[in-house]
Specification:
The protein has about 425 residues and is of the alpha/beta class. It has 17 helices and 13 strands. Strands 3-2-1-4-5-6-7 form a 7-stranded parallel beta sheet, with helices on both faces. The protein has a 6-stranded parallel beta sheet with strand order 10-9-8-11-12-13, with helices on both faces.
């Protein structure tokens, strides 16, 4: 049997390599949240390797949000934005007294950014207001390095808070925060000990698009999963064929193209059932499109689902379709749902957008189509669903790729190395 990234005694070696004074704060806009389960999965894996981690959420998380790998994450996260509390505002006075140079620096930066950021200046004001309380919480919990997920608000607050707390910081770049909401990206790249992103495409985009960011240490670390939590079911390929699509219901996910493709297949009398998982601003538009194209009975909207419910959908489906598209600069990065689906042996169809072809290799680990092409997507869906051996071959190859390159333990060990090296170089 092939060994994968989670095999062996790498956890023991990683634990031995952790500097004794390293304590990492994971900071996000909201932690935990259903649409970003990969963040908690990553933190849980690092804790299993022996790293000391604290969670920090800018806004209060939903207490009912539970992640199977860290069920108490919502109660463990420290909330930063508490404008109704005395400590929130007292933190400004504390750092003005204890670290006047650091406070003056972020205040000066705030004033300069307000001139440069135009209509977005109110956001830099919010980041400045939150930074001292974030820094106070980091110091209170003895954090020595803060790592933000997403390069927009979380990285902004982390960068300023790290300066006040006199600790190092880093951040992970995903998609929207890179391609659209790139506020102060050059400054963040210059100040970060290292920057993580999920694909080679994103890394090159950073290097070429933000030269003023200096020689930032940009590391490609894939989203990781634990394949044991995504077992391969025994699937029955008989009709009606169930096509699964998962993601926020926004334009760049391309679900309008999928609904059009379903309508084409219905016109061909090809039996299909499409399950759309997720919520978002385009839900009413997508429902209207399904009704207009006569596939309202065939297209099911489930809303957002818990991880355990998602696993059931992966097991029921015959294939997963991710018809991502580009709108302006906005696009997907490498959707985590593709990795999860492939881990269960589910064959996938995706589009040639950003880093997706690094995971879905056409004819090898999945099938690829061009964005915004309903006819091509319909043809590819029918081709796949009519060919059971092809479904099995692609599903197996996709799972093998995930085992080899997207195992959470391998990703966590790589992050551990980055944290440890950054601490030793301080």
């Amino acid at each position: 049997m092939k060994r994968h990234a989670g095999d062996g005694n790498g956890g023991q070696r990683a634990a031995q390599a952790i500097p004794s004074n390293l304590r990492v704060g994971y900071l996000g806009r909201v932690l935990p949240v259903l649409t970003e389960t990969f963040v908690i999965r990553e933190a849980a894996a690092l804790k299993r390797l022996g790293l000391s981690i604290e969670l920090f959420s800018i806004y209060p998380p939903d207490p009912a949000c539970r992640h199977p790998e860290m069920p108490q994450a919502a109660s463990l996260a420290h909330t930063i934005f508490q404008p109704g509390s005395i400590p929130f505002w007292a933190a400004h006075l504390r750092f003005l007294r204890d670290n006047p140079a650091g406070y003056a620096e972020i205040l000066r930066g705030f004033v300069l950014r307000s001139r440069e950021c135009g209509a977005r200046r109110w956001r830099t004001a919010a980041h400045f207001v939150m930074a001292p309380h974030a820094a106070w919480l980091l110091k209170k919990h003895a954090v020595t390095h803060v790592h933000a997920h997403f390069a927009n608000v979380a990285a902004s607050v982390a960068m300023m808070a790290a300066r006040l707390a006199s600790i190092s910081f880093s951040f992970t770049v995903h998609a929207y925060d890179l391609f659209v909401d790139d506020l102060l990206m050059n400054e963040k790249l210059r100040n970060a000990k290292f920057v993580v992103t999920c694909s080679r495409f994103n890394a090159e985009y950073l290097r070429e698009g933000y030269p003023a960011g200096g020689a930032a240490n940009i590391a490609v670390v894939h989203y990781g999963i634990d394949p044991d939590r995504f077992p391969v079911p025994r699937r029955c390929p008989s009709p009606p064929h169930i096509v699964l699509a998962v993601g926020r219901l926004v334009e760049t996910k391309g679900f309008h193209t999928l609904i059009e493709a379903c309508a084409i297949l219905k016109e061909r009398n090809f039996p299909i059932r499409c399950v759309l998982v997720g919520g978002g601003e385009k839900e009413s538009c997508l429902r209207s499109l399904a009704a207009k194209r006569g596939v309202e009975p065939e297209v099911v909207f489930t809303g957002a689902l818990e991880p355990t419910e998602m696993l059931e959908e992966y097991h029921r489906a015959h294939c997963l379709v991710m018809p991502s598209c580009v709108r302006g600069n906005d696009r997907d990065g490498m959707p985590n749902v593709l990795i999860e689906a492939m881990a269960t042996g589910l064959p996938v169809i995706a589009t040639r957008v950003s880093g997706i072809p690094e995971l879905v290799r056409d004819g090898e680990t999945g099938l690829m189509v061009e964005p915004d092409d309903p006819a091509s997507l319909a043809q590819t869906m029918e081709r796949l669903l009519r060919d059971a051996p092809l479904m099995e071959r692609l599903g197996q190859a996709g799972r093998e790729l995930v085992l080899a390159e997207f195992h959470i333990e391998g990703s966590a060990r790589r992050l551990m190395e980055l944290f440890a090296v950054s601490k030793r170089r301080r």
